[in-house]
Design brief:
707 residues, Serine Threonine Protein Phosphatase 5, Tetratricopeptide repeat, 3 domains, four-stranded antiparallel beta sheet
């Protein structure tokens, strides 16, 4: 009995400890699989401590807007509401309070600081929005070396207002200022404070609304155009001048989830792309699949700050909308997600700034007036170590660390790709292919497959040549032997009847003639005797099979379909359904326009025209399994088949409806319009039927409930 009680008590203690451990992390940790679906992942960062301004010697903070760290381990907080800059050591012991600078022997007060930056030379850069000033001073003496104010320039315009919110400087001393309300990009200044122009301006997204307004304004008067709202590019929210010389900038208010974090080169062009040149969605991958734009905008994260590690291998960004911190590497791979909105430790109310210190992540929460210090977990440390080892050329060591990451998280696609890269460097190409596929790294899979394919061709080329040459020689010898023995004429005579039957069958189906002599073939369908319908059925069935085969059988490098999510009814609707819809629509148009085409002729024409495209689909899909990403031969085959089918369809329409070329094109356009109308009616009927069923079910439930 005592043993049982001990076991129960021990179990309760273990459960309580587990619950306490879970309570220490009040946010979900996740990554993404190859289909951009969120999957669970080990926690990347945990809370080390939370520091409130009231807990330090400085007293409570008021609307603090920025937080930075220096190379020697100091922490600076822009206490905006109290008009001061607070300097702490790494343990948040107050070192000094900066309330003024010295400008030519006169005090220059700190007024509403909103942006801070410290460069490698020890210069402090401060953006003060309420004072409309940007101050550059020595961090130790606080003597100003430059004050940017009263900004006037021909490029800025007469209505420009200088409201510096954030500031930074690159390795060359060029100064970058984010001015609130400026939609043309960052303001760039020389080290001497001369305005050099706009930098890294965002582009207006080309949408249907933008195109419509552009053409609508072209027919308006100047007065009408002046009364219309202008479409402006989105505004930057923050900037970070990294040690690698690039300027990282965060953007808010975008209509798409990509390019919210940019890495701007000296020319102001975005260079932050994933492998293969894909645009980076820094936030949640699942948002990229949202179809409703208005809904998506409400779901998008709002990145308000960005920072990089010293080696610029890892990038962190703060999402104010959901209170999350995203960490990605320089190639856009997701490393970790942590944080949330809430009242628990490790959650935020209004996160506004982020900084790094000795491997820890510091996040300033303006709403709570505190700084949360996150420390990396063992899992995050392993990922960082693997990336750094690979970049240092320690491929075997990085592979071992990536394998350890996979033992902790089998969903880590980056780890699979990391193992594949290490194996590729070790010339273990076949093994690398497997890991690249698991890591959904198609570009690197293509690189490895190029070498594997070349090795296969090189190893088997002699045998292939020998087999082909041997087959040709054997065929020639067999022909010589048959002629010598006099068997060839007998074989031809015996096969003649069957051959004539095949020729007669070929003429009866007219299929080969339609393919290679379409005018003659379709004329035979229209004006000759009855044509068999069964070849059309076979072609249609083969087209449906080819469509399904393309979905499931396209080579990995070119197949973006998730085979597990195959919807057979949708594939049938896209293949068989469209063909049936086309036939019905064209027959309807033939009746309405007194066309001469018969229903059977329309069926045969539509199905025969599908044949080249069907063959192209089958051949291109099969060939795609042996191609690499730079080779487009499979697509060319499919396009040739599609063009051939389109030509046959046009000629068939001309012949069976007895129309000239121009009218045949118009008739096909009417057919497409009729397809749209029929589809609309079907959708409307389906919607009404569903509403009727819902009403009937509700009525039934109400009657049963009242009985």
């Amino acid at each position: 009995m005592r043993k049982l009680i001990k076991v129960v008590i021990l179990s309760l203690l273990l459960v309580s400890f587990a619950a306490a451990a879970l309570a220490d992390v009040p946010y979900a940790s996740y990554s993404y699989d190859e289909w951009d679906r969120s999957v669970s992942a080990p926690v990347g960062y945990t809370v080390e401590k939370t520091v409130y301004g009231a807990m330090t010697q400085s007293g409570a903070w008021k609307e603090a807007q920025d937080l930075i760290t220096t190379a020697d381990g100091r922490i600076l907080v822009a206490d905006t509401g109290n008009n001061r800059i607070l300097e702490y050591d790494a343990s948040f012991n107050l070192l000094r309070t900066i309330t003024e600078f010295q400008r030519d022997g006169q005090p220059l007060p700190v007024t509403g600081p909103t942006g801070l930056h410290v460069d490698a030379a020890g210069k402090l850069y401060v953006a003060m929005s309420s004072a409309a000033q940007a101050v550059i001073a020595d961090l130790e003496t606080l003597e100003t070396t430059l004050v940017i104010e009263n900004l006037e320039h021909a490029l800025l315009g007469s209505d420009f207002k200088f409201v510096p919110a954030k500031i930074g400087a690159d390795n060359a001393g060029r100064i970058y200022i984010l001015s609130t309300g400026c939609f043309s990009g960052l303001l760039q200044f020389s080290p001497q404070g001369e305005f050099m122009g706009y930098y890294g301006s965002n582009k207006v997204a080309v949408t249907a609304e933008v195109i419509f307004q552009y053409y609508w304004k072209s027919i308006m008067t100047d007065e009408q155009r002046a009364n219309m709202t202008s479409i402006l590019p989105v505004e930057y929210s923050n900037l970070h001048c990294a040690p690698d010389g690039f300027v990282y900038a965060s953007t808010v208010g975008t209509e798409t989830p990509v390019n919210q974090i940019k890495r701007l080169n000296p020319l102001g062009n975005n260079t932050y792309f994933a492998r293969g040149g894909r645009e980076v969605n820094f936030g949640d991958e699942e948002l990229a699949s949202v179809k409703n734009v208005s809904t998506m905008v409400t779901l998008l994260p709002t990145f308000v700050d960005v920072v990089t590690t010293e080696d610029c291998e890892f990038i962190y960004a703060v999402d104010r909308a959901y209170g999350r911190i995203f960490e990605r590497d320089r190639n856009g791979n997701l490393i970790s997600v942590f944080g949330a909105l809430g009242n628990q430790e490790g959650t935020f109310k209004q996160p506004s700034a982020i900084a790094l210190l000795n491997g820890d992540v510091l996040v300033l929460d303006t709403g709570k007036s505190n700084v949360t210090v996150f420390e990396p977990s063992e899992y995050a440390a392993l990922v960082h170590e693997a990336v750094q080892l690979y970049n240092a050329g320690e491929y075997a060591a990085s592979r071992d660390v990536w394998l350890e990451v996979l033992r902790r998280n089998t969903n880590a696609t980056q780890a699979y790709a990391g193992v594949g890269r290490a194996l590729l460097k070790e010339n273990r190409y076949d093994e690398a292919l497997e890991y690249f596929k698991l890591g959904d790294s198609r570009e690197e899979y293509s690189q490895a497959y190029r070498i594997v394919r070349l090795n296969i061709i090189r190893d088997n080329a002699p045998w292939v040549v020998c087999v082909v040459v041997g087959a040709v020689i054997l065929f020639k010898l067999l022909g010589m032997l048959l002629r010598k023995l006099g068997w060839k004429k007998a074989l031809i005579a015996n096969a003649g009847g069957k051959l004539l039957d095949k020729v007669h069958l070929s003429r009866n189906t007219v299929f080969p003639r339609v393919l290679f002599h379409p005018f003659d073939g379709f004329n035979q369908i229209r004006f000759a005797g009855p044509v068999a319908l069964w070849p059309s059925v076979i072609i249609l069935v083969m087209y449906v099979i080819a469509t399904i085969y393309q979905f499931v059988g396209t080579g990995y490098l070119f197949n973006q379909n998730n085979i597990a999510d195959i919807k057979l009814w949708l594939l049938l609707a896209k293949s068989l359904g469209i063909v049936v819809l086309f036939i019905v629509a064209q027959w309807s148009m033939a009746i309405l326009t007194n066309g001469s085409g018969r229903f059977k002729d329309i069926i045969i024409t539509a199905c025969y025209a599908l044949a080249p495209y069907t063959v192209g689909l089958l051949a291109g899909t099969w060939l795609s399994n042996f191609m690499i990403m730079d080779e487009m031969y499979a697509e060319y085959i499919i396009l040739i088949g599609l063009a051939w089918s389109a030509m046959l369809l046009l000629i068939g329409t001309m012949v069976i409806h007895e129309l000239p070329f121009a009218k045949a094109l118009g008739f096909l356009a009417l057919t497409v319009a009729a397809m749209a109308v029929i589809l609309f009616v079907l959708v409307l009927f389906y919607t009404l039927l569903m509403q009727l069923c819902t009403f009937g079910y509700t009525l039934y439930v109400e009657i049963v409930f009242r009985m």
